[in-house]
Design goal:
By secondary structure, the chain is an all-beta fold. It has strands spanning 10-20, 37-44, 49-53, 84-85. The protein has a four-stranded mixed β-sheet with strand order 3-2-1-4, with no helix packed on it.
Length: 90
C-alpha cells in the first residue's frame, strides 16, 4: 500500500489506535460482530498524515462493512506492518 495523498512509501504508524463508536453492536457469545471503526494514523516519507481503518472480522466468517462515514476511503483487510511511534497526535 502507498500513501493515498502522494503514492509515497508509508514509513510508520503514529500514536495509538482509536476506536470510534458509531452504533451499539452485539454478537452471540464467543463471536465478535462489532463493526465500529478502529482507526490508525500513518505517516508517509513525504510527511503526509492519513488515517486507515481495518475491516472487522469474526472467526465464523462474518465481515464488517468496507466503507464508513467517519473517515475517507475504503477500510483495509489488515493493518500495515510498519514501525510504531508513540505520540499524542491521535
Amino acid at each position: 500500500m502507498k500513501c493515498p495523498i502522494c503514492k509515497g512509501k508509508i514509513i510508520k504508524q503514529i500514536g495509538l489506535e482509536e476506536m470510534k463508536t458509531l452504533v451499539g453492536y452485539s454478537s452471540e457469545p464467543g463471536h465478535n460482530h462489532d463493526d465500529n471503526c478502529r482507526k490508525r494514523l500513518y505517516l508517509c516519507e513525504n510527511n503526509h498524515k492519513f488515517v486507515l481503518s481495518k475491516i472487522n472480522t469474526c472467526y465464523c466468517g462474518w465481515k464488517g462493512k468496507k466503507k464508513c462515514f467517519c473517515h475517507k476511503g475504503d477500510k483495509i483487510d489488515n493493518w500495515l506492518d510498519v514501525p510504531y511511534e508513540k505520540t499524542n497526535d491521535f
